[in-house]
Amino acid sequence: MFQFIESIKVEDQELFLLEFHQKRVNETFSHFGKEGSIDLAKIFKDLEHDEDGLYKLRLVYDLDKKFRTMMMPYAIPEIQDFQLVENNSYDYSFKFEDRKELEKMKTKSKAEEIIIVKNNHITDTSFSNILFQKGKDWFTPSTYLLNGVQRQYLLKKKKIKEAEITLQNIKEFSHFQLINAMNDFDDMFIYPIHKISNLPRNNDYLDM
Questions:
Q1: What's the chain's Rg over C-alpha atoms?
Q2: Rounded to whole angstroms, how far apart are CA atoms 51 and 182?
Q3: 191/113 Cα distance (integer angstroms)
Q4: Which of 119, 127, 163, 123 is CA-nearest to residue 145?
Q5: What is the phi/psi pair of residue 74, to 5°?
Q6: What residue spans of 52-200 are helical by DSSP H?
Q7: Were both Cys, which of 29, 34, 58, 167 would link to 70 (CB 3.0–4.6 Å)?
Q8: How are beta strands 175-179 and 14-15 bridged, if at all?
Q9: CA 196 – CA 60 distance, rounded (Å)
Q10: Partners of 130 in the beta sheet?
Q11: Are strands 161-163 and 175-179 parallel, antiparallel or unpaired?
Q12: Is this structure's pTM higher than 0.85?
């Protein structure tokens, strides 16, 4: 049976973006024809987590409503280099626990982190959505693999905009940053576009 994962930010005993996480879990059960769902707020309450600081609540669950949890201290990673990796068939519409294909892509790359290109379009990294800066505005690819909770939240708050970002126009952007449930939209880790080691030399191909 499929297993799914939610990684939820917990800071000073407070759950973040709970509404968006619960919505995604509910939609997963519904998509696979299952009635009901699991209650993330209750699961967290039952953990009796009473420590301050930044933590990641890792929840793995299946469609029979069985789940396991792990609460881990968290620090936002700083990544040294990125590489564009093409994969035109990869699908990650739901947050599956199985990440073998993602890990395989990372292993084949020559960088610490990958940015997945699908049908010439920029999608996500192996663990996050991505934002690109042009002038003072930030844009997220309309061709995401997974519509992450932070991405949904920032779009709802109109802090970012959607755009078609491709191999042809990626160099029009000056900087980028990674966002997910644990990584907020901020100025802490903004990377210049040249941190992507194999930006296309022209409009036709990746410099692999």
A1: 18
A2: 17
A3: 13
A4: 123
A5: -135, 140
A6: 100-108, 149-156
A7: 58
A8: unpaired
A9: 32
A10: 178
A11: unpaired
A12: yes
Helix (H, G, I), strand (E, B) or coil at 127: coil
H-helix or E-strand spanning residue 45: helix 40-47
- Secondary structure of residue 22 in the 3-state scheme: helix
Check the CA dihedral 51-6-183-16 and report its sign. negative
Please list the residues that pair with 121 across neighbouring strands. Answer: 118, 166
- Virtual CA dihedral for 117, 133, 200, 145, nearest 10 degrees? 0
Q: What are phi and psi of 177, to 5 degrees?
A: -150, 160
Q: Convert the pLDDT of each residue in 3-60 to its tens digit.
A: 999 999 999 999 999 999 999 999 999 999 999 999 999 999 999 999 999 999 999 9
Is residue 177 within 8 Å of 185, Cβ to Cβ? yes
Q: Is the distance from CB of 208 to CB of 191 less than 8 angstroms?
A: no
Please give the Cα distance from 47 to 69 (Å, whole number): 9
User: Cα separation of 74 and 25, whole Å?
Assistant: 22
Give, rounded to a whole angstrom, the gap between the first and last alpha carbons of the chain: 37
SS3 171: helix
